[in-house]
Amino acid sequence: MAAPTGRTYTLLGVPLRTGSLMPGSENDAQAYREAGIVERLRAAGCTVVDGGDVAIPSYLPHHSIPPIRSWPGPRIAWDCVCDRLAPILREPGQVPLLLGCDCSIVVGTARALAAAAPEGVHVLYVDGDFDDAPPDGGRCQSAAAMAVWLLTRGGPFRPDPPLAPARVTVVGCSAPSAAPAEAVPAVTLADVRREGPRAAARRALAGVAPDAAVLVHLDIDVMRATDMPAAYFPRAEGLALAEVTELLDELLHDPRLRLVEVAEFAALRDRDHQAARAIIDVLARGLGAAR
C-alpha cells in the first residue's frame, strides 16, 4: 500500500523544554534540519514545506514547585503551538510534522486537531512510558510525565474538554499505567514483541474510529538506548530501531493521519547527527510513497 497522495507535510520546530526536567532538547529541530530531513523526505516522494519554528516566548518560567514543574510554561507553549497549527490544519491535505517537542506538547496539538476535525481525534501515543502520572500536591513532576493524564483528564490545567481515554492508545510502553480506573488502551512492548510490529500496529489502528483524525506522537525513548542513545531519557529496555521502523511504517501510512510529532530527542547527545539521521530514515519510510 502506498502512502495517500495529496499530502503536504509542514515541518515545524518547537524549541521547548519547559515541560521537561533537564537541558538537552531546546532546539532539536535545527539538528534534524542539519541532518537533511527536508531533502531526505523529498527523496522519499514526500511534498515537504519547512514552516520554520513555532514562536514560543523565551521568558517561560522554570521552577520545581508542585504539582507541575515550570507551570504555566507548558500551557503557554501549548497555546502557541495550537495557534500556529490552526490555519495549517484548516487546509485540506496538510499534515504538520512537529520536531523538538517534549511529550507534553500533545495536549496543545490534540486541541488544535480537535478544532479542525469535528469527527473526532485519536492519538496513537508511541512511547516507552505511559506518561499518565496524576498531579500530586506533595511533589513536582514534569508536564511530559503527565502528558496522557493531562490529555485525557486535565482538570484545571487545560481549558478545553479532555479526550476520552478510548480516544488514546499508548503503543510500545514497558512502564505500566499509573491510573487504575478508566485506563487508556495500550499495545505494550511485550505485545509488539509477541505479535510483531506490523501486526501490533494494525491492532492499534483497528481501535481507531473510521472517520477519526489520527495524531501520531513518537517519543524516541520507545527505543532501547543501544539503538537510540540520543533519547532524552535513554532506556535499557525498548524496541529496536528496526522494530520501530516497521511499526511506524504501518501507523504513518494510515489514510486518517493528520498530524505527526517527534518528541524527546536530545541533540546534545548526537553531535554527529547519526541518531537524527536514523529517526529521519524512520519518518521517510513511514511517510514516503514506497513500502
Explained architecture:
This protein is an alpha/beta fold and 291 residues long. The chain has one domain (8-287): 3-Layer(aba) Sandwich (Arginase, Chain A), CATH 3.40.800. It has nine helices and eight strands. Helix 3 (73-89) packs parallel to helix 4 (106-116), helix 6 packs across helix 7 (197-206) and helix 8 (241-252) runs parallel beside helix 9. The longest helix is centred in the N-terminal third of the chain and has 17 residues, at 73-89. The radius of gyration is 17 Å and the shape is globular. The model has no long low-confidence stretch (mean pLDDT 91).
Q: Provide the structure class.
A: alpha/beta
**Structural Rg:** 17 Å
Q: End-to-end span in angstroms?
A: 7 Å
- What are the secondary-structure elements, in order, as H or E? EHHEHEHEHEEHHEHEH
Weakly predicted, low-confidence segments: none
- Choose one word for the global shape: globular
Q: How are the strands ordered across the major sheet?
A: 2-1-3-8-7-4-5-6
Query: Tally the helices: what do you get?
Result: 9
Task: Outline the biggest β-sheet.
Answer: 8 strands, parallel
Q: Per DSSP, what share of the residues sits in E-state strands of 2 or more residues?
A: 15-25%
Q: Could you give me the name of the CATH homologous superfamily?
A: Ureohydrolase domain
Which architecture per CATH? 3-Layer(aba) Sandwich
Average pLDDT, all residues? 91
Per the CATH scheme, the topology name is Arginase, Chain A
Tally of strands: 8
The CATH class is Alpha Beta
Percent of residues in helices comes to 25-40%
| Count of the separate structural domains | 1
